[in-house]
Design goal:
This protein is mainly alpha-helical and 152 residues long. The protein is 66% helix and 8% strand. The protein is globular and about 55 Å long.
Length: 152
């Protein structure tokens, strides 16, 4: 990315890398999630369904942590999924403050139907990389995602 600002090579390299990472992320996310709108689902709604499908019933807080959404946002997302009868909420028997979210039969049916094609889209998108490159990219993303405070 050309810039009129003068930076030392470390800053310029970091900025260029960041822009490439963000553009790649936005680009692949847009292509992979395009099919969700035709199903009337947002990316967050799909994330909730997918998390519960693979991990089992989760607390609202746990879902928010898994899909990186705030508690206020996750409440609205679950409200909308509940209106569509795709999930149901239940108070935890041992701690009534905790709300556990479960897939309904309808929710299970929907995610079972759409997840295989979603996984195929992701597989296709990442096929530009060989297996070793995919593993390397995954490890690098994890390292970046963990942040500066985790460096030795």
């Amino acid at each position: 990315m050309a810039t009129k600002h003068h930076h030392d090579t470390g800053v310029a390299r970091a900025l260029k890398t960041y822009v490439k990472l963000m553009r790649a992320s936005e680009s692949i996310t847009s292509r992979v999630h395009k099919h969700l709108s035709s199903l009337g689902l947002t990316v967050s709604q799909f994330g909730v369904l997918e998390a519960i499908y693979h991990l089992g019933p989760l607390s609202q807080r746990g879902i928010g942590q898994k899909i990186l959404r705030s508690s206020g946002n996750i409440t609205m997302v679950i409200d909308n999924l509940e209106k569509r009868r795709l999930v149901r909420r239940e108070r935890d028997a041992s701690d009534r403050r905790i709300v556990i979210v479960h897939l309904t039969g309808e929710g299970k049916k929907l995610i079972r139907k759409i997840f295989p094609s979603h996984a195929a889209l992701i597989t296709n998108e990442l096929s530009v990389l060989n297996a070793t490159d995919q593993i390397t990219l995954g490890n690098l993303c994890k390292k970046v995602g963990m942040g500066v405070n985790t460096r030795n």
